[in-house]
Hints:
CATH class of the largest domain: Alpha Beta
Distance between the termini: 59 Å
Pfam families: TctC
Largest sheet: 10 strands, mixed
CATH superfamily of the largest domain: Bordetella uptake gene, domain 1
Protein name: Tripartite tricarboxylate transporter substrate binding protein
Keywords: Signal
Mean pLDDT: 91
CATH architecture of the largest domain: 3-Layer(aba) Sandwich
Helix content: 40-55%
Order of helices and strands: HEHEHEHHEHEHEHEHEEHHEH
InterPro entries: BUG (IPR005064), Bug_dom1 (IPR042100)
Radius of gyration: 21 Å
Signal peptide: 1-21
Amino acid sequence: xxxxLLTLCTLALAFAATAHADTYPSKPIxxxxxxxxxxxxxxxxxxxxxxxxxxxxxxxxADNRAGAGGTIGIAEAARAAPSGYEMVMGQKDNMVVAPWLxxxxxxxxxxxxxxxxxxxxxxVIIVTRSESxxxxxxxxxxxxxxxxxxxxxxxxxxxxxxxxxxEIFKSAANIKLRHVPYKGSNAAxxxxxxxxVDLMVSSVPSAMAQIKSGKLRPLAVTSLRRSSSLPxxxxxxxxxYKDFDVSTWYGLxxxxxxxxxxxxxxxxxxxxxxxxxxxxxxxxxxGAEPQAMTPEQFGTLLKNDYQKWKGIVQASGATIE
Length: 321
């Protein structure tokens, strides 16, 4: 009798899960964007949200919740109900770097969130305004050695992968640059274009429009391979800094305990979208590289990078209160 009851309960749960997946989503889905409008994360988030709404007939609404290097938006998503109607566009900055930088972070990305769908990855890029005296990365290094701490570089904020890419380059080149953190990419971009800071370290999507317009001069990308969006821009490794490799990734996460059938359904829709030539072209056009993964593959990437960046951050000595 007990065995029959257990079998019936199992069948009922399986039926409920299937029914849940069949009816999902029955209302709008909120996609938290943990950075201000206009930056690389915002651009990709709105691209995914708009295309999902268009192709799947779902209603996906991007909602900016910026601050503290993206950790405010991630924390909000981690606290949300695991209903499938709250997700966040996370990236390496706030998912695997911030936990080792911030002393009192309110979330553990490996426990409080579940990886849903990887979207894209991108190298970091070092740029200066087109009128700058720096024509090459070697010009920057030579000037920094002649005048330590005189050259400034802006970033989207303390504790981001982009900020640390600048710090790692300083160490590799054995130079001193003065870091100027901003609240998001747009503010840093305005100041480098105005000449208030000498350089900007940025994601490629954040800088792409200004590079295309001729207002920014790209000096180098930080990945081992050149960006397919900017094939003429050399890598830092090519310029003499062997094995230099810093890139970032973007992907969707939901609160832990979100039903697996919903995670699988969202993953399938995003991967279907990433397989279209239109979406590939759109992402590459923004300076990123589309890359689909299963939830399990994305979860493994998260955990591996989480441990890898623990050592990188500790070696840098950087902390944020």
